[in-house]
Backbone:
């Protein structure tokens, strides 16, 4: 285990023992009586998060889908990004971390919880989430069941569904000699290979669809070189992220000189940004909901 992961584990256990972060001081006492106040099954949706108000509508869409699929089951939310939670707290919006959200659900009396990751790949954020969930399952007075649904890209079948979903959102007016460039977040985590796998799968269907990342591979330089080699003159830019948040608005479509739009425009490629996150598209959002269904089936 890396030093970072070990420290996260220590922190998680410390939170459980101290019941901090706005958990009432009498939480442990209530816990002893929660079996008499059980609420049964609950769902916790976990995302990286966004501080962009316009982008938060994508989360509302996801929650509607979850309520439609499981109308009788309460839904809670958690953001994995500390930075996003701090930004929102300054505006009066209090979003829980996964640790705090699970602790609150335990206090409320939920006995079974399905935790559904709304991340794109099973990277560092998802692994930290699993470690938090594992710590809760080890608690002597913990949940009877606690299961986690995988991120959007977690299997070969997911890749196939994601490719079809991407092709389905390409504007009808786009011509075959015009490119579609997806912007993923990217990571140094080994799960970055999912972005490369998406590039391969997409180009099998359409050689003028490209996958780039902000912090991983393929990079924008990789994509730009391929665009130049093929003589592309126009490209549709699409965020390959759950929401069209800060990365989409600034790194992809911003007016700054280092944005993807500016760099490709300077290269001689006309850019048409599409400002919707993947969670706003039916076919892609359904991948997460299907993963949640699989978790719920295992709990029944």
Residues:
């Amino acid at each position: 285990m890396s030093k970072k992961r070990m420290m996260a584990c220590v922190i998680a256990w410390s939170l459980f023992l101290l019941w901090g972060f706005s958990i009432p001081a009498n939480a442990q006492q209530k816990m002893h009586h929660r079996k008499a106040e059980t609420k049964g099954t609950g769902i916790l949706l976990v995302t990286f998060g966004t501080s962009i108000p316009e982008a938060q509508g994508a989360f509302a869409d996801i929650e509607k889908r979850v309520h439609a699929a499981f109308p009788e089951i309460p839904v809670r939310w958690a953001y994995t990004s500390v930075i996003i939670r701090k930004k929102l707290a300054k505006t009066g919006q209090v979003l829980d971390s996964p640790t705090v959200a699970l602790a609150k659900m335990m206090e409320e009396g939920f006995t079974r919880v399905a935790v559904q990751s709304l991340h794109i790949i099973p990277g560092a954020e998802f692994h930290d989430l699993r470690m938090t969930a594992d710590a809760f399952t080890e608690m002597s007075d913990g949940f009877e069941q606690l299961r986690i649904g995988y991120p959007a890209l977690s299997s070969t079948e997911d890749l196939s569904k994601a490719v079809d979903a991407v092709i389905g959102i390409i504007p009808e007016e786009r011509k075959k000699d015009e490119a579609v460039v997806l912007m993923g977040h990217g990571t140094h985590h080994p799960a970055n290979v999912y972005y490369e796998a998406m590039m391969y799968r997409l180009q099998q269907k359409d050689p003028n669809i490209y996958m780039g990342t902000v912090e991983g591979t393929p990079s924008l330089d990789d994509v730009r070189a391929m665009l130049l080699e093929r003589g592309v003159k126009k490209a549709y830019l699409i965020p390959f992220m759950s929401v069209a948040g800060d990365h989409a608005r600034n790194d992809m479509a911003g007016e700054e000189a280092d944005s993807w739009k500016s760099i490709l425009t300077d290269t001689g490629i006309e850019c048409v940004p599409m400002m919707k996150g993947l969670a706003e598209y039916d076919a892609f959002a359904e991948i997460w909901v299907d993963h949640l269904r699989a978790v719920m089936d295992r709990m029944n």
About this structure: The chain has two domains: 3-153+281-299, 156-276. Residues 118 and 151 are 6 Å apart (CA to CA). Residues 1-14, 16-36 have pLDDT under 50 and may be disordered. The first strand starts at residue 40 and ends at 47.
